[in-house]
Amino acid sequence: MSSCTAPNNVEQALGDKTLHFGLGAEPQYLDPHLASSVSAHNVIIALIEGLVSEDPKTLKPVPGVAERWEISEDGLVYTFHFRKNAKWSNGDSVTANDFVYSYRRILNPNLASQYASMLHGLKNARKYHREGTSWEDANVGVVAINEHTLQLTLENPTPYFLELLNHYSWFPAHPPTIEKFDAFAKQGTSWTRPGNYVGNGPFVLSDHKVNSVIEVTKNPNYWDADTVSLNKIRFYPIESADTEERAFRSGFLHLTQTVSPDRIDYLKENYPDLIHFESYLGTYFYRFNLDKAPFDDVRVRLAFNLATDRKAIVEKVTKGGQTPAVCFTPPETGGFTPKARFKFDPDKAKALLQEYLNDKGLNSLPKIELKYNTSEGHKKVAEALQGMWKENLGVEIQLLNMEWKVFLSTIAKRDFSIARAGWIGDYVDANTFLHMWRTEDGHNNTGWSNARYDELLDLAAKESNATRRFSLFDECEKLLSEHAPILPIYFYVHVTLRSPTVKGWHPTLLDHHPYKYVRLLKGKE
Amino acid sequence: MSKFILLRILQAIPTLLVIATLTFFMTRMAPGGPFDSEKNIPAEIKAKLESHFGLDRPLHEQYFLYLQNLLHGDLGPSFKYMGWEVSELIAKAFPVSAQLGLLSLGIALLLGLPTGIVAALRKNSKYDYLLMTIAMIGICLPTFVLGPLLILIFSSWLGWLPPLGWYSLSDMFLPSLTLGLFYAAYIARLTRAGMLETLNQDYIRTARAKGASPIRVISRHALKGGLLPVVTFLGPAFAGLISGSFIIESIFFIPGLGKFFVTAAFNRDYTMVLGTVLFYACLIIILNLIVDVIQATLDPRSRNL
Amino acid sequence: MSIESAKAKELVSENPGESSLWGDAWIRLRANRLATVSLFFFVLITVITIIGPEIFSLEYDQQDLDNTFSAPNSSHFFGTDNLGRDLFARVLHGGRISLAVGFLATAVSLVIGVAYGTMSGYLGGKTDALLMRIVDILYSLPFTIFVILLMVLFGRNFILLFIAIGAVEWLTMARITRAQTLSLKKAEFIEAARALGYSHYRIVARHILPNLLGPVIVYATLTVPAVMLLEAVLSFLGLGVQAPMSSWGSLIKEGSEKMDIAPWLILFPGIFFSLTLLSLNFLGDGLRDALDPKSAKE
Fold first, then answer.
1. Residues 6 or more apart from B297 whose CB is under 8 A from it?
2. CB distance A405–B267 less than 8 Å?
3. Cα C161 to chain center, whole Å?
4. Which of A255, A333, A504, C82 meets the CB 3.0–4.6 Å disulfide criterion with A517?
5. pLDDT (tens digit per residue) in C197-238
6. Do the chains contact at B267 and A130, CB–CB below 8 Å?
């Protein structure tokens, strides 16, 4: 695959230690308090470090800005002790006040951050963010004890709190820089441009050409700079999976963001050591609209679920080694594996549907629209299900694809009968999945409301014993399988192409890869 | 001549106004907005965001505000690329598209002109048929087929050229060639047709009868006539190259204007959409003007139209 | 009847463009081998796409997940695609869509363009100047941009597709018909008709329109392939027809992504598409030569 002409990026990188990374999309924000996408995450973690960092293999929290911490008996108070040599890229020390400032910023309602609700675990954060209380009166649970000690107080004991801290919404921003560009409560400022961006991570932002490349260079002021082997990382926001693959195969990229599902078989056969299948913490599913017939009747929803051959989908359509979703939360999420309750039983499906039809005095169901956002992968799954439901239920399904923005608006307006959906966990705990189906949650969008379900989640939030928590979660899953506001299909697998010269890159559930451990070498480790 | 140019410039102003208005209301009427997000931000938060960018004001107010800013050359901030102004993004993307366009046209002329001339001179011979059929095939082959094919051959198999990007000189060759071949086909046909029409004119016959050498006849007279349709074609072709280059830009990952436009439309980046549309319109108007001036110079008869 | 009106009547009934022009044109066209072959080819492809699926009882959306990406064989003449659907069926059905878009959009542009251009040319004077000024302004619109914008903003409505594309192409049609109308207006037989007191409507319908047919047909024949290409471009952006339907454009786009895995996916639709475009272009050229005696002299 290599050439007899000038060396390609991958070959050159062995010498110049530059990682060439397929980013998949141009990030809308590089501001940690405004970002909301995977592409933003992949760049931000190079530039900023939080209180804790992640182990590259297990994602378990390890010291970051904080070198040690204590947790109170009741699990509500966390005290973080900063390392003395934690510095911003301009030489300033990282202080506890930087974090107080940052949390105040992201929770400021005028900033209109999309992920501010991640910090609602902090005591009184909701009061300040959503209820209009002033910062002084709200007494939000973040206090700088001194320059190098930060104390966080939570609303409820949260066993996965330290993992939460690895989400960029909890990252600090450099206060003098934010002030200089008047960005405290304003979006769209230029503090995130190269030359202006000040971060405390292993790299600094050295170049940003929109739709072309984002480049970061090693930060000499990073406290752990000795561990960092890479010199530069160049992120290429290539949206087309085919273009990405072409780039990879000519040695232009070390890593792709994704692989086109139709090409998986071919690549598996011809380049087996280059294509990687990694479990990804996410569920691919369809939503029903409970406010619209016929999905207002649980029998129809159950019938559709029973008529879905999930095994066939993952084996013959997606082909990425995905696991059929027999529950909503992926197995082994923080140690929790729900019972398998969503099954394939076409006879039972037919019977249930017939019961419904008899009840309503109908011969068959009217044509039903299935909406999804434009993508080859979604189209394939939708078409396969269209065929399955026709065969097993005798239902006519009309496919309607639309592009992303219109799709989002359609879901928000509840203008659908069935719609495609997907959810990637923000942290490794079942709560990130199950909270979606609470009555008031902004992600629900099905119209399903169950008081017992909400109650169970409230109880789980206060429960510190893992076994008891998991049994509460399992009861939630049971309710989901009985009322079926959704149709889970499969658990994500992240399929990607990776050059064998990339070392220190481990498969993780959240697809997080701390760059400071990455090395570029030929041959074995 | 200067009066003619002045008139056209004056004409351009209402044109641009119409285009701006049309585009403005079209984008606003479409479903979905720039701040619709999967994270489902609470309504009041989303409202704050929209108000910060003035999207909560009544539509006509926004429209007049936009026009006002336009007069100062302010195209507004992009809603998708936060922190960047539309004008600076266009300023960075246009040179890329222009380079691509010029290189492609260069290749197209280099390949197309001689082909057309030879075909015209050897009219109805097998060369003529062969060349014109190749040209025809070029017209019927979409760029999104030719592009990946060329990449497959020259990049994946042979490894001679990079498969994507616009970072160094060698990146520019394949995309320009792909677009260039397509336009070469058109140019070949137009040159041939134009030359044939001219060669048949009376004054050519006169020149020949007077004993002028064939080369003289070709270069002096026939070429001029052959070039005329090509020139007429070049203006819209260049504009078309720039505005239609998004296919090439997508296949070859080039940060040109076409890419920005399509992405903006999909993302409801209102300001970017307006900015790029207006920019294209200005470009087309200027190019049409240049073409008309050249046409008038080359062929005085067309001045009356 | 006075001598003047008798003479006028003679001029009107003998007006050029009736039988003699068509007869001559047809002969010239037949002599052009390339054009004749193209015509035959085009008719053949059209017929196949229209009746083929019924004759061979083909299902274009029948999935066979165990048989994806299979090469051409006896049960699937053109092979299968990524969901195991028969490519032969999909190419024929796709042809229906592509040709339908081509013809309908061209028809739309034809109707609008001819009406507009004829009216402008016939009415002349200030009205003509104004109408043509509008055309000039519209010419400055980056039309591809607008079509894309329309499709992106308002979704994949089939009708919208025809209208959007048709709206792009009518301008040149209008210019051609106006130019033609202007020169026809000066012809003797038109003056004679006016002298005889024929209504405007009759003059336009009976005498001007038929004489426009020549250039209009030529241009229409060349517009259809342009429209089909535009539809292919829209498919590339994902703005074409909805799944599971397909057009040649969307089939080619899908095939181009799998060229190294399953070349038949792009080969067959590509061949059909290109041949159709080629034959239409050659036919258009042939018609132009046949109907315009001046250029045919070469």
1. none
2. yes
3. 15
4. A504
5. 777 777 777 777 777 777 788 888 888 888 888 888 888 877
6. no
Coil/strand/helix, residue A277: strand
Describe chain C by its helix, strand, coil percentages, rounded to 5: 75, 0, 25
- Which one of A266, A374, A380 has the shortest CB-CB distance to C261? A266
Give the pTM: 0.88
Euclidean distance between CA atoms A428 and A426, whole angstroms: 7
3-state secondary structure of A170: helix
Rounded CA-CA distance B114/A105 in Å is 65
Neighbours of B30 (CB within 10 A): 21
List the pLDDT tens digit at each of the 305 positions of chain B. 788 788 878 878 888 888 888 888 888 887 777 887 766 677 777 888 888 888 888 888 889 988 998 888 889 999 889 889 999 999 999 999 989 989 998 999 999 888 888 888 777 788 888 888 888 888 778 888 888 888 888 887 888 888 888 988 889 999 999 988 888 888 888 888 777 777 766 666 676 677 766 666 666 666 766 676 777 777 667 767 766 688 899 889 999 998 898 888 888 888 999 999 889 888 888 887 887 787 777 666 554 44
Chains that touch B (3 or more CB pairs under 8 A): A, C
Structure tokens at C186: 């000066």
A400/chain C closest Cα distance in angstroms: 7
The helix (run of H) or strand (run of E) holding residue C108 is helix C87-123
Instruction: Tell me, yes or no, if C134 comes closer than 8 A to chain A by beta carbon.
Output: no
**C83, A383: Cβ pair inside 8 Å?**
yes
Domain layout of chain B by residue ranges:
90-256
Q: How many CB pairs under 8 A join A and C?
A: 46
B contacts of C257 (beta carbons < 8 Å): 148
Could you give the CA distance from residue A497 to residue A248 in angstroms, rounded to a whole number? 7
The dotted CATH code for B90-256 is 1.10.3720.10
Residues of chain A with C-beta less than 8 angstroms from the C-beta of C80: none
Angle between helices A298-306 and A466-483 (to 10 degrees): 100
User: Are C140 and C203 in contact, with CB atoms under 8 Å apart?
Assistant: no
- Residue B230 touches chain C, beta carbons under 8 Å: no
- Contact residues for C122 (Cβ-Cβ < 8 A; gap 6+): C181, C185, C200, C204, C208
Helix (H, G, I), strand (E, B) or coil at A368: strand
List residues of chain C with CB under 8 Å from any CB of chain B.
Answer: 133, 136-137, 139-142, 144-145, 148-150, 152-155, 225, 229, 232-233, 236-237, 249, 252-253, 256-257, 259-260, 266, 270, 273-274, 277-278, 281-282, 295, 297-298
Partner-chain contact C68 A266, CB within 8 Å: no
Cβ–Cβ of A247/B163 closer than 8 Å?
A: yes
A200 Cβ partners below 8 Å, 6+ apart? Answer: A48, A49, A65, A86, A87, A88, A89, A94, A172, A174, A222
Say whether B108 sits in a helix, a strand or coil.
helix
Amino acid at C216: V
B245 phi/psi in degrees, rounded to 5 = -80, 0
Test A405 with B49 for CB contact under 8 angstroms.
no
Q: What is the DSSP string of A65-125?
A: SEEEEEE-TTS-EEEEEE-TT-B-TTSPBP-HHHHHHHHHHHH-GGG--TTGGGGGGBTTH
Nearest residue of C to residue B123, measured between CA atoms = C298
DSSP assignment letter at A419: E
Establish if B246 touches chain C: CB-CB under 8 angstroms: yes
Residues 6+ apart with CB under 8 A from A34: A111, A113, A114, A187, B82
Residue length, chain B?
Answer: 305
Residues from chain C that touch B15, judged by Cβ atoms under 8 A, are: 137, 140
- H helices of B53-142, in order, are 59-71, 86-121, 126-140
